[in-house]
Every structure is written in structure tokens, then in C-alpha cells.
Write a structure and sequence with these properties.
Blueprint (H helix, E strand, L loop, with lengths): L1 H28 L3 E6 L4 E6 L6 H9 L3 H5 L4 H39 L2 H9 L27 E4 L1 H7 L3 E3 L2 H4 L1 H5 L3 E3 L3 H9 L10 H4 L1 E6 L4 E6 L1 H54 L3 E8 L7 E9 L1
Helix pairs in contact: 2-11, 4-11
Length: 314
């Protein structure tokens, strides 16, 4: 009987020693910090609560949406949703930005081929005979002069530049000095304002290739009044192309807006989920207490048992 008890105590002691080595490993997996208070016969293990840093998932989500959700071990659909919106927004921005640039190049090339300074000056001083709905060219003040609400930049070169001691002038100057244009030493600056002007303002209609034979006017409702707009088929084509380019550009800007909001929403959600999980774990720990009773090994003792070990887990 005594031998049986001795064997049982040895078995229990071996099991207890094994548990003592395995338990710290399990504690590391749980990310718990253990603090052991020992006496000659009793050991009490106190588990300190893991420190939670909600700022970590916030920063992760602000850098890459979905990363904070992954860190919080949230349901996979949350990580996939934020990451999917991120990838989709980037791809959309890239697509619409490229489409806007392609359409911009297309309408600028169309304008370069079909709007000339020569047409503009010629139609100003030699008005077209074409009429539209009993109205002639000279019936519209914007078509009878080169000056108006807007102007273009002109570059002067050659002998004219030496004579005037100028390199740049406004297109308004040609109304009083058309000979400057006929000298062949003046070219128009085709910048952003140029492409905007030839599509928006009536005073530049005469520069289109089909202005002398196909110009027309139409009424445009501007709210409390009606405005007369003068166009040509080529000008309308240019306006449509430019509208499509601007529409693509607006879509690209919208994609960037979605991208930014996705970062912010992912960050807010990651902090909210982190705090929710932390509170849930805290409540579970406060309502659960674990104890363990074991033997303390003592090689000097007859049976190798030096006392009892009581472990309390909070």
C-alpha cells in the first residue's frame, strides 16, 4: 500500500513538474505576463492584464485600410471590405486619370488642327456672308471685334519683335494692329486658357475652320433669362470632347475622395472594435477565476514532496 502511494505521488509530481514547464509557454501564447509569489509551501501566480493600445490599429488602418481590422482579429469580411475599397479606389483613380489625359490630348489636337489665328483675324475683318435664321455675322457684336471679356497671349518674334521691342502681347492688340498678324511674326500661345477660351466665348468663334460657312446661334436658358450662344459644328465637337475629359477627371477626383474616407472609416472602426474587444475580455476575466492545486518538489524530502502549490488565476 505504501509503495502504491509512493508511485502515485511520484506520478503526480512528474505531472506537476511537466505542467510547470508547459504553463509558461501557454502563458506566452495568451500574451499574459505572469508574476509568481512563492513561499516555502505555497506558490500564487497572478496574471497581469495585458496592456491594450488602441492607437496601434488606428495607425495601421490609416496607413492601409483593413490592417487595423486584421490586427483586431475582426471577421474577415471587414478586412476584405476596407482593403477591397482601397484597391478599387486606386484602380478607379488610375483608370479615370488616364482616360481624362487621353481625352484631353484628343480635344487639344482637334483644336490645334481646326482653330487658327488666321481664321479668327480674317473673319473679323472680312465677315462671312453665311446667315442663320435671318441673322448675319455683323448682327452679333462679339463677332465684329477681336477684343472682349477675355484675351489670348501672343508671342512676337523676328523683325516685328525687334521693331516693337516686345516678345509678348495680348490678342486685343490685333484689333487695332492687324498688320502685326499679317507680318507672320505672331503665334498664339496654346495654353490652358486658350483651350478654355475657344470653347466658351463667342468672341473666338471666328477661329474655327468651319466658322465662315457653318456658324449658327442658339438660345441657352440661364435661369432667369435667355442667352444667345454662337457655335459651329467643330466648336460643338470640341465642347463635347472637353466635357468628356472633365467628366473623367471628376470621376478620378471622386475616387480620391472615396480613398481618403476609406482610410478614416477604417481607422475609426478599428479603434471601436479594439475597445469593444478589450472590454469584452476584461469582463470575462473579471467574472472568471481559476485555481490549481499541486505539489512542490523537494529533493531532500523522503518522497520528493516539499509542500503544496496553490495557483490562483485572475
Amino acid at each position: 500500500m505504501e509503495k502504491m502511494v509512493e508511485h502515485m505521488l511520484k506520478f503526480f509530481l512528474i505531472f506537476n513538474l511537466s505542467f510547470m514547464f508547459i504553463n509558461p509557454v501557454l502563458g506566452q501564447i495568451r500574451n499574459d505576463q505572469e508574476k509568481e509569489i512563492s513561499t516555502d509551501s505555497t506558490s500564487i501566480v497572478v496574471l497581469n492584464e495585458e496592456i491594450n493600445y488602441p492607437g496601434k490599429p488606428l495607425i495601421m488602418s490609416l496607413i492601409l485600410p483593413g490592417a487595423g481590422q486584421f490586427y483586431n482579429k475582426s471577421p474577415f469580411w471587414k478586412t476584405a471590405s476596407f482593403l477591397g475599397v482601397e484597391i478599387g479606389s486606386v484602380l478607379a483613380w488610375n483608370y479615370y486619370q488616364k482616360e481624362a489625359e487621353k481625352k484631353k490630348d484628343a480635344y487639344q489636337e482637334f483644336a490645334d488642327q481646326n482653330w487658327t489665328l488666321n481664321n479668327w483675324v480674317t473673319n473679323r475683318f472680312t465677315p462671312p456672308t453665311h446667315m442663320h435664321e435671318s441673322q448675319g455675322w455683323n448682327n452679333f457684336e462679339a463677332l465684329t471685334k477681336l477684343t472682349g471679356t477675355h484675351d489670348m497671349k501672343l508671342i512676337i518674334s523676328g523683325d516685328l519683335a525687334n521693331e516693337l521691342n516686345l516678345t509678348r502681347v495680348s490678342s486685343d492688340s490685333l484689333d487695332a494692329h492687324p498688320e502685326w498678324f499679317y507680318s507672320g511674326d505672331i503665334v498664339v500661345v496654346r495654353d490652358r486658357h486658350f483651350y478654355e477660351n475657344i470653347g466658351k466665348y463667342d468672341q473666338f468663334v471666328g477661329g474655327w475652320e468651319d466658322a465662315s460657312t457653318a456658324w449658327y446661334w442658339e438660345e441657352k436658358d440661364v435661369g432667369d433669362s435667355t442667352e444667345i450662344v454662337i457655335k459651329t459644328p467643330m466648336k460643338q465637337n470640341f465642347i463635347d470632347q472637353r466635357f468628356e475629359s472633365n467628366r473623367m477627371l471628376s470621376a478620378a477626383k471622386y475616387s480620391i475622395t472615396v480613398l481618403m474616407f476609406n482610410h478614416v472609416l477604417s481607422g475609426i472602426e478599428s479603434v471601436w472594435s479594439n475597445q469593444k474587444n478589450a472590454n469584452s475580455i476584461k469582463n470575462q476575466q473579471s467574472s472568471k477565476r481559476q485555481t490549481d492545486l499541486g505539489l512542490v518538489y523537494d529533493p531532500s524530502a523522503k518522497l520528493g514532496v516539499g509542500g503544496l502549490k496553490l495557483s490562483v488565476y485572475f
